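Support case: user asked for a sample of complex input and structure output to validate their parser. Sending the pair below.
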Amino acid sequence: MFDAHQIILHGLTYDEFDLALEIIGRQPNMVELGIFSVMWSEHCSYKSSRTHLKNFPTTGPQVIHGPGENAGVVDIGDGLAVVFKMESHNHPSYIEPYQGAATGVGGILRDVFTMGARPYALLDSLRFGDPSHPKTKYLLDGVVAGIAGYGNCMGVPTIGGELSFHPSYNGNCLVNAFNLGIVNKDRIFLGTASGVGNPVMYVGSKTGRDGIHGATMASAEFGDGGEERRPTVQVGDPFTEKQLLEALLELFKTDYVVGIQDMGAAGLTSSSFEMAGRAGTGVELDIEKVPRREEGMNPYEVMLSESQERMLLVCHKGVEDKIKAIFEKWGLSAEVVGRVTGDGMVRIMEKGQMAAELPAAPLSQKAPMYSRPASPPDDLAVRHKLDHDSLPQPKDYTETLSRLLASPNLCSREWVYNQYDHMVRTNTIEKPGSDAAVIRVKGTSKAVAMSLDCNSRYCYLDPYMGGAQAVAEATRNVACSGAKPLAITDCLNFGSPEKPEVMWQFIQAIKGMSDACIALGTPVVSGNVSFYNQTGETAINPTPSIGAMGLLEDHEKLVSQYFSEEGDVIIVLGETFAEIGGSEYLSVIHGQERGAPPKVDLTKEAALQKTLVELADKRLVKSMHDVSDGGLGVALMECCFKPGTSAPLGFEVSLATKLRPDIFFFSESQSRAVISCNPAKAKDILALAKKNGVPALNAGKTSSGDVEIMVGGRVLVKTSSATLKKAWSEALPKMMNS
Amino acid sequence: MKAKVTVTLKSGVLDPQGRAIEGALKSLGWKGVKGVRVGKSIELEVDEKDPQSAKAVVEKMCEKLLANPVTEKYQIEIITDR
Amino acid sequence: MKTAVLVFPGSNCDHDCYHAVRHVLGREAKFVWHQETSLDGFDLVIVPGGFSYGDYLRPGAIAKFSPVMGALAKFTAKGGLALGICNGFQILTEAGLLPGALMLNSGMKFICKDTYLRVETSDSFVTGRMEKGKVISVPIAHMEGCYIADDDTLKRLEDDDRILLRYCGPDGQTGDESNPNGSYGSIAGVLSEKRNVAGMMPHPERVVEASLGGVDGLLVFESILNSLSAA
């Protein structure tokens, strides 16, 4: 019998414990209680989110595998598919930034290569507290080093992502890692334990006491003692994972494997229960045979360990030694630890004694499911109030633009991505810094574009619009490279689902995302939910990070965001409205975070994206860049800041408007882009935009380095591109070295 | 027999980590700190009976693998069980 | 020309070197696993970049004991050409096939970016097609690329014209601002005494196709081809 204390220590509610009793018809033992605890943690069971996640559009002709597998799989033609997913490692990264981020990268890589794909690109969405908060620099420095330490050693390039700062992350940073791999469509491996009598093998690193109850930790709010929890943090070993990757890719060329799954959160427990659950089989594990790194580990510890770089696989009978030989070549051990059974039970045997016996499917698939109460915050109307007249207009627009470009959320990210090997495997044809990162697919003419986006300030003000905007921006960024957006993955970072306001944010964001995904033709193929991102009563801004991928059939048609030549025509696509609610301008210059965020008109957005893809396909443009955070002025400058150029290009543009100049200039209206082209192509571009119903304006031309921006007949900004580039480039290193 | 090997950079070889730590210590108020050098410590056991032969074996390990003679020097401590 | 690309546990630029030789230059190339004991029949051996043995202990410290390194010592003793890139350079210095050592970058962070390199000698199999003083752009990607050697060694390298490349600015000037990792004398690559073993931290295999953003790496590979066909 367990007392209340033990049940609560295991993160179960009394109702959940009663449900456990009902399922097994008796009292569980300690090992079994531990298994229930991790399998039914929020992290593994999605118990508060499943009922809402069902509403995502997840199908389409391009989708081979949607949510439910280790990662989503999308057809890219020529017999190839991309495998991709994004996952959070927020709490571990807050406790120990280097190892937390490193093991986050390790985990997402395994999710992709466990399906048979070689990982080709990593991206990361990172969010930290206020730059002046005492922990921010320490966390950022450690997280970036951890991502670099793991990804670089694995030889998988980290080619992009996003970084932003906001006080709501002071006590709870976000580290979301995205990985994309490529696989032959007919060589995809799934996590199923089918074939009664088939051997179950354990491959990879040995098991230690790392991260026991990491999965339950990730589902608990940070209290005042968060910093004290260090012992449960896992340590990554990228070298072993690299060996594991190469060994598995060699193994996948054979027909030995029936099913395979990563031992991620909840380790051996979740992999065995989920593999059996999916196949409708059972598994018997001889826990004595699990390779161990530490002495005296009991079955509870072995089943719940979160040691990294391990996998569980089911193979055909008779090939065990051949599999062992492959792993031996790569310096790894592979052990037969059990077999597939037909009765749907997972049995854990120790020295011939039953250490645990639980039904696989009910634990993995019939976890409690909650439809938690949701209600909008009381002060929503107050949040949306914004009085433009109370905002003084800038006296010096050049100075204001310079301040924005040097602000933490908009300045150059070079300090970050120069620590990542973003070129290894020589596929990176659009390097970090551009709207989308792009890799070519060797052996074909194709390229794959990726972008991660979310504006959590928008989501705080209006989670529906914020969710839709995140999908719109991520896919728009992909389209700006010329690639056609095909699908998205997500990482939904929210506060405690037990708080009605958070649940409301979650439901609204999902609605917004779903509507955008349908309108833009990009289903959700994989994803991850991270709840309990809060410190005490304060939740983070709702942050549904979106990872979009798109396909460029001919990689020579790739378009970058940077102006390339003096004298090219600059065209602005889309329309600018008086939308500074939730903008960088309002936050950085006026110190306010309020108003309604910019509206996403999904019909307009779809028309714009279609236009961008067509412009690239017809080779009409030389650059395309999405207008987002900071507005038109910031977007125009970003087109000039090509990495590695010491003398950046400039431009002269003249823009007509009836709006107040600052509201026009810093508006973050959606569905806009800045493009440049050879003057001879301008006419064709305007005609194509018109045909698609996208407003387009010939705004000016590129220059050798001077910047002149005229709005409503008045010169607002007059300076040199180099001056602004200096402010933009130096801001982050200055912040980190101060 | 247990041995502890301490590998440090030869004097004169620039140690960016040591320099950074020294700067951090100074900024934390220990103004007089100087000469910070970072090294690594390797613990191992060898199958030898007496300290002299253990030291000789570990010395060979240092020469061959544990230290890079171009940049590093080493110290060996043999821990005798009492 | 038949090229061996060595593969150690943890090598990760092996595919890139293979791709450059096999698919860009259209020459014969073969991966050679670190357990192999012979390099007979090859004209060139590339020791590629990556993290052999996870860079544990020191980069290259464990890889130097792989069986293939014995074969490489024999191969180069007979005058065979070997080029170590990045981790390959680190392995060759650890193995004593090249002088000096590569230490933690002065900034203590991994750096991946394009660098300018000044060609210091034309008298080598990797720079033969380039004039002394020419500036090329090739990326680096390393944590331990700070080249150091004792004064005598440095003097000998200078006297024997065995410094291959130095980090520099776009105008060819060397100095602290253009030295990414704190290397002594901004040295980015060196030659062995017999001039048949070369090591460099920058990655020429990453700039061999216009779509990758540069083609200066081709000059290195063309120099190698040229010196092999001249031999």
